[in-house]
């Protein structure tokens, strides 16, 4: 099948656009994974009040899981759910052991991955530097700031 010049140009433009979209998708994967994982893990492991990974997750009467200290502070001021804003029948909290074990597994896996990535970066640095350059990379003492105390006058 023979294509005229306009059809060939259209086909080439579509192929080019498809390749650009693939490149864009490849570049977006790490960004999307950071957004979906929030660099701190799945959103389900985060407290809706503090927006941080929970250490002591507890289930409230509304069925949502919260960090224990955060929900206790909330209950000191409110009798409603922080998520649904409905009045709760009870302020009783139940430990959520399932989420706690998921958080432990996630943090362990993340720590292993960070250690692996650190080891890979160290090996790449060693490979890129010669032995003379590596020996000259001795750590320097940290810069020490002088503390300046303001005169506050007589008390």
Report the CATH C-level class of the domain at 40-126.
Alpha Beta
Specify the structural class: mainly alpha
The averaged pLDDT comes out at 78
User: What is the 3D form?
Assistant: flat
Low-pLDDT segments:
134-149
Distance between the termini: 97 Å
Q: Report the CATH architecture of the domain at 40-126.
A: 2-Layer Sandwich
Give, in spatial order, the strands making up the sheet with the most strands.
Answer: 2-1-3
The helix/strand order is HEEHEHH
Plain-language structure description:
- By secondary structure, this protein is mainly α.
- The protein has a domain at 40-126: Zinc/RING finger domain, C3HC4 (zinc finger) (Herpes Virus-1).
- It has helices at residues 5-37, 68-77, 97-128, 131-135, and strands at 57-59, 65-67, 94-95.
- Strands 2-1-3 form a 3-stranded antiparallel sheet.
- Strand 1 (57-59) and strand 2 form a beta hairpin.
- Mean pLDDT is 78; it is low at 134-149.
Short précis:
The protein is mainly alpha-helical. The chain contains four helices and three strands.
Topology:
Elements: H1 5-37, E1 57-59, E2 65-67, H2 68-77, E3 94-95, H3 97-128, H4 131-135
Antiparallel strand pairs: 1-2, 1-3
Name a few traits of the molecule.
155 residues, mainly alpha, Herpes Virus-1, 5% strand
């Amino acid at each position: 099948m023979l294509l005229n010049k306009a059809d060939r140009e259209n086909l080439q433009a579509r192929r080019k656009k498809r390749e650009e979209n693939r490149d864009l998708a490849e570049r977006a994967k790490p960004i999307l994974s950071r957004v979906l994982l929030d660099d701190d893990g799945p959103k389900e492991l985060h407290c809706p009040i503090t927006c941080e990974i929970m250490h002591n997750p507890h289930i409230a009467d509304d069925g949502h899981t919260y960090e224990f200290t955060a929900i206790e502070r909330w209950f000191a001021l409110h009798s409603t759910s922080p998520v649904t804003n409905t009045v709760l029948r009870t302020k009783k909290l139940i430990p959520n052991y399932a989420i706690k074990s998921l958080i432990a597994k996630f943090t362990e896996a993340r720590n292993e991955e960070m250690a692996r990535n650190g080891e890979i970066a160290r090996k790449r640095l060693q490979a890129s530097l010669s032995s003379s350059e590596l020996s000259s990379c001795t750590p320097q003492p940290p810069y020490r700031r002088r503390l300046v105390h303001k005169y506050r006058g007589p008390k």
